[in-house]
Amino acid sequence: MSLEAGFTILVVGVTVFFIARDTVSPEVVLGAALVVLTATGVIDVEAALAGFSNPAIATIAAMFVVAAGLRATGTLEVVSERLFRGVEKLTPALFRTTVATASMSAFVNNTPVVAMAMPAVTSWSRRHRISPSKILIPASYASLLGGVCTLIGTSTNLVSDGLLHSHDLAGLGFFELARLGIPAAVVGIAYLVFVAPRLLPDRVKVKDLDGDLRRYTAEFEIVEPSVLTGKTVEQAGLRRLPGLFLVRIERSTGTIAPVDPGVRLFPEDRLLFAGVLETIVDLRKFRGLEPVAEEKRQDPSSGVGLHEAVVSQGSPLIGTSVRDANFRGRYNAAVIAVHRHGERIDSRIGDIVLRPGDTLLLEAAPGFTRAFRDSRDFYLVSRVDESEPPRHERMIASVAVLAFVVLTASFRVFPIAVAALGGAILMVALRCLTPGEAKRSVDWSVLIMIGAALGIAQAMESSGAAGLIAEGIVSVASGFGPIGVLGGMLIASMILTELVSNTAAIALMFPIALAAAGQLGLDPRSFLIAATVAASYSFSTPIGYQTNLMVYGPGGYRFTDFTRVGIPLQLILILISLLLIPRIWPLTP
């Protein structure tokens, strides 16, 4: 063992130890490890920073923007509503999520699939008071299982196909791996649906919204075209939103109070709600349900959002009704909800007479908080995150952009990075997103983690550490015969893909698999297939694959969560592979 290889293994071991302890954020640990490897000369500066210029970084950043465009136009809400329609429990929600992500990942790069699934899963989880940590790891793992099923499902398969051609061997057929991938995905999804939830703790605590005393009074009107017209309150999904109470419905024929869940909704109905801030924001995502304001509301395409402002003791607004306060003229804003601590306000918004300490929910342009945070009229002014109303009129445009990304990448018209970047630019150009929203949508911590992990993978490869680990495992396994070597290939690839990238793992394992098959006089294809599929089964750490890193933060996970769920799944997949590979790809020529 060379000094560089030994030192690299030591650094990687320390890195995994600190990430597993969760005392320091993973992007800091990975960045520090990369700095150490660079400062000691294991890897030069250019190679260390090459990970940050990897196309995967640009692809993931761009797909954050594409996903944000789909969310901003209400597309994700529609998909989420259809995907989770009628689903109230965790098990059916898990089943639908894992099947959908696995199916899509067979034909589309799993990075954008997971990026688009995350907001829908998080939204459903919050509404049903179920921690997203129960679903996000299974969604990431399902995407990896689906990616194995076709040639274009993951970059690992494409790299393996290229290596086969370069060694004058028959390349992979488009659905060749499906004979192993589909049975593995079926068993894997069953495990993720019925076993994984028992192993995953509630890492993200969902607030008890019903117990939140900070309730707003808000008034909404059904405006055509609306998805709510003709539906009952129950069917419209307005009864079980957390922290929400429908006080009454006002229509031309009279007032309905209390409101029965079977009451049907019609255009021009005015609905008075008492609800917490998060739920009031959610109400604005229903197409055709618009907040009532005495002042003219702004065009959603202008980037208008929600802001909270507390009326000060000396404010000129005190003693004035919302209707007479002239918020549009004074502040270029419109009041859509009012919170008064300890009281439920049953009045219509325009009739509420303001008092000191009232918290107003205002619809205003992005600059409102900056302009009035020092005003004597208010004690406190703050912007509500992700509160922009959906741009439903841009929904078709956002779907077209997604189709452009998927089709051009799937048919290899453009590389996935180029297709994703083009999609991100189109989202802004077609006004599905504002430039500011696009910038805020990128999770930079994820990009830093992936870039640093790719640099460490390069150090593992160039120092010889990765090859040394793989050769050692295979040499031990050779004493158990051909099946033992096949198992060694699977284990070695799985370990390597956790330490380096999946593409680096297959690149390192390919010559080892060829050599092992040659020494035993066996057909190398079965060993190469084993190395290929195992390089995609990155389940025991969050650092082995980018989709695991993507769900790490939003799920509030710890390193050990991936290990607890992933290692049993890997053992199951090893058994399935050992049973099926020799039958599908015989070991003897």
Explain the overall architecture.
- It is a single chain.
- This protein is α+β, with helices and mostly antiparallel strands.
- Among the domains are: 209-383, Alpha-Beta Plaits, CATH 3.30.70; 465-584.
- Helix content is 54%, strand content 9%.
- It has 24 helices and nine strands.
- Strands 1, 2, 3, 4, 5, 6, 7, 8 and 9 form a nine-stranded antiparallel β-sheet that branches.
- Strand 2 (244-251) and strand 3 (254-256) form a beta hairpin.
- It starts with a helix and ends in a 5-residue tail after the last helix.
- Residues 208-213 have low confidence and may be disordered.
Give the key terms:
9 strands, 589 residues, alpha+beta, 9-stranded antiparallel sheet, 9% strand, 54% helix, Alpha-Beta Plaits
Can you summarize this structure?
The protein is of the alpha+beta class. 54% of the residues lie in helices and 9% in strands.
